[in-house]
């Protein structure tokens, strides 16, 4: 868990200036970082820690990738909105949900579990 928080903090430091990507990206939002940390803390035991990446709009991406056909990507913003997309074999899609800072929405958690447990 501490490793995940350190990765989030490192991203915030690396992407704290406007244009950090050379293309005019916004700095990573402090509230998005807090929300991403809360999300990781809310993950149940047995769920692997995701990869983290910055987004040009100031949000943070969390990715669980088993293969190119089996993945779950989640964008955590400052306002609690979770935009997510998945591929699990021949099926895929995208949707949005709200994270209250404590409880991961059931549809998001099930999507992550499906990918982590390689049911693709």
Unreliable stretches covering 5 or more consecutive residues:
none
Oligomer classification: single chain
How many H/I helical runs?
Answer: 3
Fraction of residues in H or I helices: 25-40%
Indicate the radius of gyration in whole angstroms.
Answer: 14 Å
The geometry reads as globular
Please count the beta strands (DSSP E, at least 2 residues each). 5
| Straight-line distance between termini | 26 Å
Helix/strand/pairing class, anyone?
Answer: alpha+beta
Q: How are helices and strands ordered from N to C?
A: HHEEEEEH
Strand order of the main beta sheet, please? 1-2-3-4-5
Largest sheet: 5 strands, antiparallel
Strand content: 25-35%
Number of domains: 1
Average pLDDT, all residues: 92
Molecular structure report:
Helix content is 31%, strand content 29%. The two termini are 26 Å apart. It is of the alpha+beta class and 120 residues long. Strand 4 (81-88) and strand 5 (91-98) form a beta hairpin. It is built from three helices and five strands; from the N terminus they run ααβββββα. It has one domain (2-116). Helix 1 (2-14) runs antiparallel to helix 2 (30-42).
Question: How is this fold's topology laid out?
Answer:
Blueprint: H1 2-14, H2 30-42, E1 51-54, E2 60-67, E3 70-76, E4 81-88, E5 91-98, H3 106-116
Antiparallel strand pairs: 1-2, 2-3, 3-4, 4-5
Helix pairs in contact: 1-2
């Amino acid at each position: 868990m501490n490793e995940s928080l350190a990765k989030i903090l490192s991203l915030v430091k690396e992407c704290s200036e406007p244009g950090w990507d050379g293309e005019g990206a916004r700095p990573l939002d402090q509230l998005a970082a807090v929300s991403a940390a809360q999300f990781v803390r809310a993950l149940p035991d047995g769920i692997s820690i995701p990869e983290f990446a910055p987004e040009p709009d100031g949000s943070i991406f969390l990715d669980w990738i088993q293969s190119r056909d089996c993945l779950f990507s989640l964008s955590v913003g400052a306002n609690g909105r979770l935009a997510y997309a998945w591929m699990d074999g021949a099926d895929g899609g995208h949707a949005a949900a709200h994270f209250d800072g404590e409880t991961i929405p059931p549809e998001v958690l099930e999507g992550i579990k499906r990918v982590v447990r390689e049911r693709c």
